[in-house]
Amino acid sequence: MHLSTHNWMRAEPLATTLRRIKKYGYESIEISGEPTQYDVMETRALLKEHGIRCWGAVTLTLGDRNLAAKDEGQRARSVDYVKSVITMVSELDGEIVTLVPATVGKVVPDATEEEEWKWVVDATRECFAHAKARGVRIAIEPLNRFETYLFNRAAQALALADAVSPECGVCLDAFHLNIEEENMYDAIRLAGKRLFDFHVADNNRFAAGLGQLDWPKIVATLKEVGYDGALTNEFVAPVDRTPAAKYPDMVERNPVDIPPEQLKFIQDHGSSLLTEAFYDEQMRITAETILPLIK
């Protein structure tokens, strides 16, 4: 296992992120699933310069992106988007695309269970075929019920993976597991060899080590099932706007160049634009919590 991180949680140049994570012992990055933001040659050069490899990318399933959409054209555009993320990962020599099939924040279905299941299976199969041709693995990620109505538990993600291909896997996230599973360790065991990626945030969605999750037991269970991929940092720090705020200087007050869709995605997760000092500290704490357990 090795330590990786997402980078969608803060709007900053990729070079800044890579310098930060290198000093704390991260080995790879699961890059934001927005291919139009990254020139492949420039990104490859930056990764090489900082000695960080691309582990993969996560789909940012926001706006109209939805593999289970009722509208056929919307589904087709969503498939094209996922394919573009897969292509980017392949061109960056990455291994994984974490696929969130339905729109994040959408909690009301569009159709019957049978209709949605057919739509999402067919769309995911098309994405999987493209990924296989590009040498990239697909890992379906379930989210908690407050972010999506469709896939919340490991068993549900595995059902979709099974319907797609024996070579399709899942990604589990400790934060979501803690909300949705009867026993998060059994959920990891259920995924077993089909576990292709694992995301890391504590029960309060701050950095690992700042909440109540038992990280030694989580990592031990990952070792038990033979998991040897990334533990990918994905804290999404909730903002406290009251006088009780524990981190009063966490919110960036200066203007930030960020696409409105990305800002909305961050805010919909209960977070905000984070200061560099706060973000850096969360990165450090995650590394100090996880690295001793996996080395």
From TrEMBL:
InterPro entries: IolE/XylAMocC-like, Xyl_isomerase-like_sf, Xyl_isomerase-like_TIM-brl. Residues 18-242 form the Xylose isomerase-like TIM barrel domain. Keywords: Isomerase. One of its GO terms (molecular function) is isomerase activity. This is Sugar phosphate isomerase/epimerase. The lineage of its organism: Bacteria, Pseudomonadati, Pseudomonadota, Alphaproteobacteria, Hyphomicrobiales.
